[in-house]
Design a protein that fits this description.
The chain is α/β, with parallel strands linked by helices and 359 residues long. It is built from 14 helices and twelve strands. 45% of the residues lie in helices and 16% in strands. A six-stranded parallel sheet has the order 2-1-3-4-5-6, with helices on both faces. Strands 9-8-7-10-11-12 form a six-stranded parallel sheet, sandwiched between helices. Helix 8 (191-204) crosses helix 12 and helix 11 crosses helix 13.
Length: 359
């Protein structure tokens, strides 16, 4: 039964069982108790599987949304690009037609390519109309505020980075030469380049080992990793205590993505004081400061990736310094508790605003 004095938020996004960044963010909110602070209902609009399974879930989710909508004041839409945008635009338009306050939470690292290269002029105009329907528009970093500020009014955009529960501080051993990657295993995450440089790293550091944790989306890359199984370990998808164990035991973390919205995995590595080598793209520069909390590599470039990893492998004390700085930054800026306070303040603010309608 709903408590009348609490904010009522209807949140939509990929099903919480989906292996991905948005689901991870949503699950972090639930784990931290957001659903105990407000009246929160979550509707999963997408599941993993066949196109038919995804279509059926989308239809089911929309019908569920229609049933629930009248009981909630705010609709919080977690959106990426491509098919995610098209699905969520239906929910946004419906919510505004029913005079609900709308929070659009943009997570898509590939949105610029989608917007600039895949859409026609009319398509871009439709995107502007839909995104302008948000009473609040949340992005993951300052680079995203700059980008979306060219599409909608900049003063309606708020930077709300992803956040995590900060684990208890534990002593970490450096110089182990254990490299960890967490995330989707595909070309656009830089896995091809990472596997290419591993034999070269091993020539100088015979004890080096790479741990890949995630779901394979590219058969050729999976076969390439299998050929290096002597020093490349395929962990599959890991979570909970098992993921925390690898974050604690591995002294180096790598994220060589071509693009990123932000990266919950990097936040987890920061909180576990790893020496980090990551691409300078999307929201990552808000987390990684070159030479202070990590090392930047160029997306798609094996030379800078190899050089960055060699630098970390060669210098355990550098790894320690970067890791301890990263831990402090995660505590100060990316705590889930602080993030939720900001989110609740945003809900409060838009609840007091007059309805916004796009002319």
């Amino acid at each position: 039964m709903m408590k009348e004095d609490r904010m009522r938020v209807l949140m939509v996004g990929p099903d919480r069982s989906v292996h991905g960044g948005i689901s991870g963010v949503v699950n972090n909110y639930f784990d931290a108790g957001l659903d105990r602070m407000i009246e929160l209902c979550y509707i999963g609009t997408m599941v993993e599987g066949t196109k038919l399974a995804k279509l059926l879930q989308a239809v089911k989710a929309y019908l569920h949304f229609l049933v629930k909508l009248s009981k909630y004041d705010i609709v919080h839409v977690n959106m990426a690009s491509d098919s995610s945008y098209y699905r969520k635009s239906v929910f946004i338009r419906t919510a505004k037609a029913c005079h609900k306050k709308v929070v659009i939470h943009q997570h898509g690292g590939n949105f610029p390519e989608f917007y600039e290269k895949e859409l026609s002029h009319k398509g871009r105009e439709r995107v502007k109309t839909v995104l302008s329907m948000g009473d609040a528009f949340l992005v993951l970093g300052t680079a995203w505020k700059d980008f979306f500020g060219t599409i909608i009014e900049r003063d309606r955009i708020t930077v709300l980075p992803d956040a995590i529960r900060i684990p208890k501080r534990e002593e970490k051993q450096y110089g182990r030469h254990k490299i960890l990657y967490l995330g989707r295993l595909c070309k656009t995450k830089g896995i091809g380049e990472l596997l290419t440089v591993m034999p070269k790293l091993r020539e100088q550091y015979p004890d080096v080992r790479l741990y890949l944790a995630g779901i394979w989306e590219d058969k050729e890359l999976q076969e390439q990793a299998e050929a290096l199984k002597e020093y490349v370990t395929d962990l599959g998808w890991i979570s909970g205590a098992e993921k925390q164990r690898y974050l604690r035991e591995c002294d180096i973390f790598v994220m060589p993505s071509y693009f990123e919205g932000q990266s919950v995995s990097i936040l987890e590595a920061m909180a576990n004081a790893c020496g980090i080598a990551a691409s300078k793209t999307g929201g990552i520069p808000d987390m990684i400061i070159e030479g202070e909390t990590g090392i930047f590599v160029v997306p798609g470039d094996t030379k800078t990736l190899e050089a960055g990893l060699l630098k970390l492998l060669a210098d355990p004390e550098l790894c320690r310094t970067l890791g301890e700085n990263a831990r402090r930054k995660a505590e100060a800026e990316f705590s889930i508790d602080n993030n939720m306070k900001q989110l609740l303040a945003i809900y409060e603010t838009i609840s007091c605003r007059e309805p916004h309608y796009e002319k």
